[in-house]
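Quick log. Single chain, no ligands specified.
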Amino acid sequence: MTRQLGPEAPRPTRPTGPLSLTAVLALLALLPALSALFVLSAPGARAADGDPAVSLSKKEAGKGGEITVSGSGWRPDALLMLLICGQSTPERGVIGGTNSCANADGRAVTTDRKGAFSKKLPVTEPPKPCPCVVHVATVTGEQALADAVFAVAGHPTADLPRQGGDGKLAVLATTRLEGDSSLLTWFGAPPARRLVLTVGNLGSDPVEDPVFEIGTAHGVYAPQWEERQWRGTVAPGGKARIELPVELSAGAHGDYQVSLRYGDKVLAEQPWGVGRPWGVTLFWVLLCLVVPAAVFRIGMAVVDKVRPRPAGAHRLRRPTATPAVIAKTKTNTNTKTNTNTKTNTNTDTNATTAVLPWFTPDSAPSENRPRPTTKGQA
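-> predicted structure:
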C-alpha cells in the first residue's frame, strides 16, 4: 500500500530572543556620533552666528585701576578697539562719537579663531561725565560694536542730553568736492579735498554738533568710515552749509567713492577720480638709470686702478723736476735782458743735468764711442 503525499505542514519558526551582547555594544558606540550630528544640525548651534558680547571683571573702579574686558561672538581674527566712554549707555550708544571717550588710554586686541578675546584695560576718566560704558568696536572690515555698563568712581555724573527724536537732517543740494592737488600730491602725498554740502533740519528739534561719518571706497572694497564732527546748530526748518575734510592714503590713485553717513542713513555719495602720482614713477625711472651708471663708473675706476701695468711703462714717464731745479729756472727767467748768453746756456745745462740724475755726461751713450771688445775677438 502506497503512501500518498499530502500538503506539508508548516515548520515552526524560531522564537525571537533578546539582542546579543555585540549588537548592544555597537549601538552604544554609535550613540555619541548620532548626538553630535544632531547638535551640529540644530539651528543656532554655532556661537559665531550670535551677536558680539562684552563682559567686565568689575562694574565699577576708580582712576588708576585696571579691569579685564572679555568678549565672544566676534569675527575671527578681527582687530578691536577698547575705550572707556562717557555720556553713553548701551541703549543710546556713545553720544558724541569717540570725542566722549578716553582715546589716549584705549587698547587694541585681536580676536582668536573662535571670535573671543580677553584684554586688560586701564581705568581713566573720560572727557564727558558718566553714565559711562566700555565701548568695543571693530577697526577694519565689517563694522560691529558692543557696549558694557561701567562706572568710574569719583567721576562726575550728569543726565544724558535730551534725545531729539524729531531732529532729522537731509541734504538739500548736490554735494561736491572742492580743492586742488598740490605738487607734493604729484610725488605721492595724500590727496585731500573738502566735501561741501547743504543740509536742512526737517524735524521739530534742533540738531547740535552733529557727528557725521565719511567713508571712502575703492573698487569692490567696502568703505572705511571715519568720524567727522561739525560744530554748529541746525535749527528746526533751517539749513546750514557744511564742509568736512576728506583725505586718502599716500600714493592713492584711481576711482574712489566718497560717502556721507549720519546715524544709520547715508545722506550722499560722491565719485572722486584721483590721478596717478607720476612723480613717483619718474623718480623710480631716474633711479634705475642713475644707479647703474654710477655703479658702472665706480667699477671702471676700480678696474683702472688695480689692473697690471705693461713692462717698461715706468720708463715712458716724464721725470718730474725737483724743487731746486724749479727755483733755478724761475731765477734765470727773472734775470736782466743783458745777461750773457753763455751764462744762460750753462744754467740750462745744469738744470738738465739735475733733471736726469741717473747718468753723467761722461757715462752717456754715444754713437761715436767704440764698443768694448771681448776676449777672443779681433
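Residues 1-19, 31-49, 341-349, 351-355 have pLDDT under 50 and may be disordered.
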